[in-house]
Design goal:
Elements lengths: L10 H20 L6 H15 L2
Length: 53
């Protein structure tokens, strides 16, 4: 990684968000009916809120 960010938005937070969103994309492409649109929105919102308080 290039430069480390300060505060709650550090490099680990960036990696965690990256991995979580990639997982959700792969899940959506391979098993499109597991999570509905509303649930995906809730999952993304929850991940961001928990990682970036």
């Amino acid at each position: 990684m290039a430069a480390s960010l300060s505060g709650p938005r550090d490099a680990t937070t960036v990696v965690l968000l990256y991995l979580a969103m990639n997982w959700l994309i792969v899940e959506r492409l391979t098993l499109p009916d597991v999570f509905g649109e509303g649930e995906i929105h809730k999952l993304v919102t929850s991940a961001v809120e928990r990682l970036l308080p």
